[in-house]
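Q: Got a minute? One more chain.
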Amino acid sequence: MKRLIYWLLGERAGRVVVGSWRWLWGLPVESGGKVAVAVAEESLQSMQESVQQLAKAVAQQVGAYERAKKKYQDKTRELSSFEQQALLAQSAGQEEGARLAMGRAIGIEKLLPALEQQVNQAEVFVNASKDKLNRERLKLEQYKSDMQNMKDLAEVNAALESIAKVNNDFNIGSARSSFETAKRAVEGRHFTSAALAELSENPQEKITADLEQMTLDEEVSQRLKRLEAAPILRLPETPQP
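A: Always. Here it is, folded:
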């Protein structure tokens, strides 16, 4: 299924679709949320598969190189063996045997340069492939570390978003501001009502009432003074029976 999606949509778009399969469709990777993490995981899995395929290819190259190297070594030993046979045959007076062995040695000797070139070329390719494999493995390990860091960062982002949501849902600062506004409104209403009551009172009536109160207070004081100055009259005693 994944290969079919990659073939239909292309590798990059296919990774986005496959990575977000378990999440909502159509969310952009740039949002940095769960879809981005899922796409990163899918990309990391693709890189792991590519590195595994590269490792298999390098292993095949190494096998081919070892076979070519062994073939070259075998031919080198054969050359030495035929030369030795030719020498022994020549020493024994077996001219035909010596010529036959030397002919085989010459044939191998002509073949060896081509074999040596192939072995050297295979060695260059194998070393280059090994270096590439090592680099890709190092990159893969770095991406694995980045993947874990990405997951941790996504969890922190989710926590921060939850905190922000709580602050928005329970906006104490906004409630405090509303309370202060209401308080100022009530106090302002009180001052307005007091001023209105003061202004609605008739100043002439207030002056008259004040004068009457002052007159009454003065009369009460004079009466009390006269009572203090007047002699105290004793009441007649009631005769005892």
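A: The CA atoms of residues 86 and 98 lie 4 Å apart.
Q: Perfect, thanks.
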